[in-house]
Specification:
It catalyses: S-ubiquitinyl-[E2 ubiquitin-conjugating enzyme]-L-cysteine + [acceptor protein]-L-lysine = [E2 ubiquitin-conjugating enzyme]-L-cysteine + N(6)-ubiquitinyl-[acceptor protein]-L-lysine. Belongs to the UPL family. K-HECT subfamily. InterPro entries: ARM-like (IPR011989), ARM-type_fold (IPR016024), HECT_dom (IPR000569), Hect_E3_ubiquitin_ligase (IPR035983), HECTD1/TRIP12-like (IPR045322). Its EC number is 2.3.2.26. This protein is mainly α. It is globular. Strands 3-7-6-10-8-9 form a six-stranded mixed β-sheet, with helices on both faces. Strands 2-17-18-16-15 form a five-stranded mixed β-sheet. Helix 11 packs antiparallel against helix 12, helix 19 (346-357) runs antiparallel to helix 20 (367-386) and helix 27 runs antiparallel to helix 28. It is built from 66 helices and 18 strands.
Length: 1404
Amino acid sequence: MRQNPKNPNVSVFDSFSDSEANSDIETERMQAEAPIPAADEKTNVHRSFSAETSRTDVASPTQKNSRDAVEPPTFENSTSPNAAASESFLHSAARGSFHSEKVSFFELMQRLSQNHGSSMFQSLNSEYKVIIDNLNLRDDSYFVMECARDLSERLLMMDAMTAERTIPSNDLTKALVQILSDPIFAEDLELHLVVCRCLFNLVELYEDSAIDAISNKAIQALLPKISDIVYIDLTEQCLQTLEVLTTDRLAHSIFLENGGINACLKNLDFLTTHSQKKCLKIISNVSASIAVSHFTFVVDSFHSLLNILLSDIDPAINESTQTIIFRIIACFKSHRDNLEALFPAAELVVQFMRIAFHPLATDNLQLATQMNCHASLEALASLALASTGIRDTVLQNDIGSFIRTSIAVDSVTLKNRLTLKPHFLRSDKLSSTMLTLIACFIPTQFREAEFSMLLHPVGRFDEQQCVADIELLHLKSYLSHIFPVLVCFYEEFSDIRLKARVLSSLSDIISILNFDSGLYSPSPTDYSDFVATVADAIDGGKSCLTNYLEKVSMSDMSLLSASCYGIMSAFKFWGSPFLISMDREGVFSIIHEIVHTIDEKQILLDDSDDPVEPTSTHDPKKVLLKLLGAMYKICTELISHRESMGTEVTSLSNFPEIQEFIKHASSTLTDFEYCTNDEFEALWKEFRTILCKNSMTGHELKSLNLLSIISKLLSLTPVKNSVSIRAFISVFYEDRDTLSRLIHLLQGILSKQNIPSELESKALNNNLQLLKRRINLSLRQKLSSDGLVAIKDEAIMALVPALMSFDDLANFLRERLMQGSNSGALSKFAEKTSESCENQRYSVDFYYNGKLIKRSNTIYGTILGALTSKSVGRSSEIAELYSTHEVLYDLVSHQEENKSSQTKELAPPTDSCLVLLSNLNTINENFVRPQLQLEESVFVNFTLSLKLQRMLESPLIAINGLLPEWCYLFIRHAPFLFPIELKLQILRCLSFGLSRTDLFQFERLRGARRGSGTAADTNRSLSESIGHASRIKLRVSRDHIFKSAMKILREYGLLPSILEIEFMNEIGTGLGPTLEFYSLVSQCFSTDSGMWRHSAKDHTSVANGLFPASVGQNERNCIVQNHFKSLGQFIARAIFDSRNLDFYLNPVFIRAIQNWPQYSEFVNSSDLDTLLDLLTQVDPVLSSSLTHILSMTTSGKSKVEDLCLSFVQPGCSDLELVENGKNTLVTNANVHQYLILACKSILVLGIASNIDSFRKGFSSLLPLNVLTLFSARQFSDLMGNGEEDWTIETLKSAIGTDHGYSDDSEAIRNLLSILNEFTRHEQRDFLQFLTGSPRLPIGGFAALEPKLTIVKKFVETGMTRDEHLPSVMTCANYLKLPDYSLRAVMKMKILQAIKEGSGEFLLS
């Protein structure tokens, strides 16, 4: 069992010899291993692991020496194309990659058979004919049995190709089925079992044999044996065989007509759980395609399936049953009578609705659950669309409330706002299905016929049937729930198609209210939300008209057309006030632009009266013209209404208070340095009043130049603007709701300015398989200054991997040219290349389409970026991508190389909106007291975050560096716009190189978004071959943990390989020991008394976090600086390998290491009050003492001289604050100077060398801008000091159960309540015991990978369940928990296991 670890009790400053260190570390290099399941439990040991063995792959020299290794290219001369094919084939063969060259094993066997004949296959064929003859014998059952056993073993060892060529499948399956059906063998159940096993082995080999078995009535022979159970082994084998047979659609009708569903369900309660799953899997296969004529075979069984679903037994069985029901509904979704027969009672409909929405009640769904939820919502939508009775029943039972609670939760940042749950943000398919369900209950008969096509362009909503017969009486409650949900959908989605669907539903609701306003009375919040939604829609949709008018499609026009209809409907409902709101949002300027664009382009609009239905097959161009015509008519009518209103539509710029504020603010900027705090407060109160009184819009903020004025007033130059900033804080942090609304307006402006580009939409649709192909390059020399000319016959043809970088291509080009060429240009180039190899004066530059290429770019990314600008179609783009591309190369000197290789640093943002947001975030984080600060989520822009996340989920964008410039700009200068989870994804995708890129993760995320895991499974092997990170295993001694860590950082800390740690003399391996190593090293650093002002005995013992001790001038301080350098490298290594840390760093220290120049400038230019506030966060006791000294001078009752203080840093007499400070007495006259110098010494001067050492260590592995990617609070969370959610609801949603436990088991409920009651110290110990780390990763329990799973630990012979202790598998996050008799016993045993199981990894 796990024993208590030995306390090394060794000072971190003690030196050690290399020989001693080498004895503490053992190294094992390996490539990415596959874990092997842990050994079976043999003893009552409390902690276990997932044992691993190394699988070493042979790597090419390039892979060993390059961080981002790729396959070398294949070169050839342009005059010998056949040689290229041969060389490419041989090259692939040498690397063992025949599959990528379209040469299958079957083709090779065909070639062999042509040369050597097919006598072998003929011999085997004759043998099987003999076997078939023996199986047809009826006089000796024993002989038939032995023959069948021999056949079963043969089939088990055979491959599909051999079976297909040697076995007469039709005759063999006929013989086997006849044995199963023959009355002679009716009592010989053992023979049936062997024959059934033969049949299973055969049909599993290849598909044709399954078809032969079905044709020979195998299903009819197998079904009676599962309907009437006589021999359980035979029944289970029959189920296994039927599972394979029913995957073929030919079997479905036969299975149904012979009562297959009833046969599978008849004895379901008597079967094992495994067999029950087999039965349901068979029915699931069949229910994928059921003909209408077979409805009678389904209807009775359907009610039995509903009973199984309502019984809520095993979760896996429940899930399989749901899949069957959803598929059956999908088969009859167009047949109203059949669906009503499936749900004859209203209670069944209500129960099914609750079942469909039940999984959506949680905040985080797994991928499989998302897929099931999609199917359930789709089935419910099919029922609602097909049957009026079912639809009315669902409406009467408050489906609107179900939808609202399933989709969204109340926003924590804005009042009266909703925010979508994470699974809807991650899955477009799930969101699309929910929108379809919502639209099913919104009638469409109230649309204006003249403009109805604006909501349903041809080909847009084909899957959504128009509903026109819903009783309005049932809509009242539904609309009150759905309206805010739709607005929430629109605000948080970036997909234009989904936005258009949301706006169509909102417009339909407004049309209903035009008919009967009593159904629903929109609140002021609903009104303002709809105004903002329509304004954003028309602003976002106009670009497709103005920029792509010649090639615009109705898919592009859907958002614009829906917004035009929505404005017209809303005007008819709300009247003139709505037009006033539109004018304040800048909508009429856009409407004028639309009309002007259509007039300027001289588009011939179709004014014919021919109706165009949504399912029409009219000419798309004609339909598009009618669409533009309807939009043009609406826009001109709106302009006419606006002009007829005259002065009633008043712009906010005419309001006197606005004009007065602008004048006041402008004069303040002129006399900025002379304004007092009271004057600034008056100005900010005036601005706050304007925001509250007039409900200012984002368009007005921008158009009136208020953004520029406010950003200048809040400029972060400390000396000039500290008074303005303090006044702003005192005014707006008293009313944080107004400040939150201002930030919300700024976020809306920012989102509108960054609409996804055409590149994003194209690359997001590409798939990972394209990266596996090679690209043809024609390499020619660029015309250079010495007169060398690129000669056509001297081009070098290269077939290169798509992900090769131009840097690697330059290396291979040098090698190719060094092989020698006697022709003019190439020989001179080779001479220069040879010279460059000797003195490193020359390098190679590449040009594509006349542009110099960054050598870090991939070939695929460079070509794709160039093709996108041509705006070609997808098929043409792929064809052109893999055609031959001409690339020019040239020699450059070393100085020129440095110039060309320098990347342009992104200039700081100049946009006033972004500058103001950045200033507000900095003020909130650095100038406001922690208890008054706004939540970081207020500054997160969810729209931009979703756009960036989707692009990062596309490997073709992320790997090839094709992100739009705004992404890099915001990541670099405004990272606060993105949540911490997305920032970690940015690091994984963009910062660690191709060898560390998890391509399988890309496809898993995209599969989750699409609601399907197929792509992820398909591309797993491909992702391993492209993004392939090597691993290094290191064994360390627990007795010398810190010394071993220092040795590892020196020798392995800068390698790109993943480091995995094991402990000597312990069997544990994998993630658990690695996380424990990082935890132990974190504790060693934290308890180092020489590094910190207040060292920690443990993580929770430092009240304000770790802050560096001031450094004097002695040898020990040099050691401290080295340790700070090691600390920086250690933290960078943990981020690099995604390992949990266990530090509590002071927030002021975090600000210092993130941006030391800015921090030091801020501290050095701050006044005494600001310095004392900062010191309070570091050392509140010292800050209180210094404040008391300051108060002595103001009271006049005592003298500072009586304290006998000198000008040295408090607590560090080695640091003099002034020259000869030890002999300079602090007096009332110089006390102010003393306090300022003391604070600056503690906060800046005394820690400068330690901060510099930390940053050097960190930057040795990761760039320093990684530090600035996170806020101080986020970086603190990353270090292990974040808040953790241990509520029962969170634990229940994040924990899985299996092997004896379900979510409703009493033991699981007891465990959750025990974990919820644990103290902070007990929670840390439990996590250490379970995972190896005392901290949860970012995201809490839901982010544990693998998922935390609780399974039942069964009792050994001779022991009771209360005598067992829990055990864990740290690598799999697997907790084996006995089913204790009492809750108190469970808690006692868990705490005992935690205590006894710490300090060592052994088998369990």
